[in-house]
Amino acid sequence: MTKSPPRRTVAATSLRQVSEEEVEVADEFEFVEDEWAYDSGCCADACGVPACNLFGGGYWVNMDFLLWWRDERVFPALLTTQPNNGVLPGAAVLFGGSMDESARPGGRLELGLWLDPCQRTAVGVRYLGVADASISPEYTSNDGNFLARPFLDVSTNPATPTAFPVINAFANPPTTGRIGLRTDSEFQAGDVFFQWTLRRSPCASFGFLAGYQMTQIDESLLIESFTQSGVGTGVQSIAVSDLFEARNDFHGGLFGLRGDYRCGQFGVELLGRFGFGNMRQSILIAGTTTSTDASGQTSTRNSGLLAQSATNGGLHEQDKFSFMNEAGVKLAFYPREQLKLSLGYSMMYWSSVVRPGHEIDTSIDGRLLTALPPADATRPAFAFNPTDYLVHGLTLGVELRF
Predict the structure, then answer these.
(1) Cβ atoms of 402 and 58 closer than 8 Å
(2) Which residues, at least 6 apart from 289, have a Cβ–Cβ distance to it below 8 Å?
(3) Is-above-0.85 flag for pTM?
(4) What is the pLDDT of residues 254-277, one digit of tens each?
(5) Do 341 and 332 contact (CB within 8 A), yes or no?
(6) For 23, left (φ over 0), alpha (ψ -120 to 50), or beta?
């Protein structure tokens, strides 16, 4: 006879087998949670949760140093010299035409928070700005014997090209003086957004984002001249200033796609955004002329040369539909799991922006420059003439994940 094993031993063996099967089933379920759940190539994660996802952790802080270029500024010929007494065509242009922009530093800060432990949804906020870009040439009598401001006098028939001399050493009596031109450009933008992860693996993520964006693009042009003639007690002078100030405020919806791929300590990121909404465009035109006669009497009127209160002066505003495009690429390096360093390129584009150089009318009714300007003058005139606008350049960033 063969003795059977004790019942207690059989029961223990059966229980142990069931436990192993349950463990195997549980492990199998864990790995099929996501069809991309596990990849032992570039990134390995025994839990099936992406350990090297671009936005790993509960929240992230991204700081980028920017070295960006603006669109070139374009102005009509505003300052001339000999030959042809400063009259166009034929005179040499000292200020006018296309002006290439030099790269300016800036910064971009992004803060984000994941709203669930699986990192499926997040909310973020971003701000970026580029340093002011100023161009400010200045000329005096020591820089030349003749400087003039050209314009077309439409009070004659036919219209006559002419120029207002600021400095003229050949006149009788000769005139001395100075003229300064200054143009500034400011740019800043910010947005808030929600992000949804559409696909995710230990090595890659791909998501959709939507939100709200605002942008402010400001540019200005100021021309100031001072002309003096005579000597002793017979000195006469005239000071003229023209100001053209443009402001663009964009408010609109924002949509985009964001993706990344990482292999070991190296990765690449891609970003594309599209926005559309209202661009509030404003142009302020103002001028002054202050004259002092030989007796010292001073008179001032609220018009300059190209800025005339009777025709184009004042504040002009309009609302314009505009869209925005943004694209960026980054090459990333991960020295530690919670730290990312990156080098990339970004660009932002707006379809409709007003700029001072496009709002200057150099045709003037010459009668406006007399002591008794007429009431029927129409030039210089004002008309909105928006153009597109682009900023772009290099980015150098650091991101911390917690």
Answers:
(1) yes
(2) 238, 239, 240, 241, 300, 301, 303, 304, 305
(3) no
(4) 999 999 999 989 999 999 999 999
(5) yes
(6) alpha
